[in-house]
Amino acid sequence: MRAVVIAWLAMILAGCAASKGFDRGTLRDSLGQVTTDKDIQEVLALKPQLPAPFKLGVFLNSNRSNYKTRVWTDEEKNDLLTYGNRLKEAGVVSVIYLISEDTIPGHYGSGYVSTSNRDALKDLRLEAARYGADALLVITDVSSVDRYNNPAALLYLTIVGAYLVPGTQSDALVMMRSSLWDVRNGYLYATQDAEGIGKRIGPAFVTEDTDSVYAAKKMAIADLGRKLTDRLIQLNAQMP
Length: 240
Fold this sequence. Notes:
The protein is of the alpha/beta class. It has 7 helices and 5 strands; from the N terminus they run αααβαβαβαββα. This is Lipoprotein.
């Protein structure tokens, strides 16, 4: 049994010896392309029509095919809504609704909806309308983890070292893309990208990738919240 454990640890050391980095291009593709309609003339005919202030529906759109944690925690939702309070104070938004994926018509059991899919976006707008929202904010997020060992991992060969020695590093990248749509006619008001990186170092048998993902997601939420809040306040000031 000891020989099996040692062999397994040797495989860990060999397979995780160096950082592989993140494939940002693949992650960006997972976020989806923001498009409104195949018919360009129809898109150009759309006009902004938001009231001031407006009611905002928010759909949290995790791409679970490329994600380490599949749900937004209550803490993460509250962190996001903190920035919504700033929008309320600025008179941009009056009410914010979090739209549940369970209420969306169709097949969206995976929780992920591509905004480039015209029918899927219409379904989201329909659900936002049921909530009484004037605008729909779709936030799509993906993550990637780079797990590797540092020189201290040589002590993993003692077996107990894999429980005690901080020889493993887990780096996580979370990328987010948001798009704001008019519920009534599908007009695209704004898009905003953000990202966060989280790092955790610890023993191989103790270090969890989800911890670094949570840390990265917290940073991404803060980055998106700041950028999007400033963007919407600026957009509101430009509206007639």
